[in-house]
Amino acid sequence: MKKIEERTQKTALGYLRISDKKQIKGESIPNQREAIEAYAKANNITVIDWFTDEAKSGKNTDREALQNLLRLATKMKGQIDYVIVYKMNRASRDLASYFTGIRNVLATLGIQVRSATESFDDTPDGHFMEAMHVLVGQLDNENKRENVTANMTRLARQGYWQHTPPRGYEMLRIKNEDGHPRPTLKPNHEARKVKDILKRWNRGDMTEGQLMRYAEQIKFYSQRNNNPITQDVVHKIITNPIYAGYVSDKFTSNEKVQGKHEALITPEVFEQNQLIILMRNKSYMSGLKRQATNELYPLRRFVRCNKCQKYMTAASPHNSPRYYCARPNCAKSGSIMTKKLHPQFEELLSVITPTDGTLKLLKELLTRQVKNELGHLNRDIAQIRDKLSENDSYAEEAVSLYIRRKLSEEEKDGAVKRANLERANLQASLMELEQKQTVSEKNIEHALGFMGSIHKHWRTAPLELKQAYQELVFPEGFVYDISSKKFITPVISPLYRVKMDELRAINDKKPDVVIPWRIELQLPG
Question: How far apart are CA 33 and CA 37, in angstroms?
Answer without folding.
Answer: 6
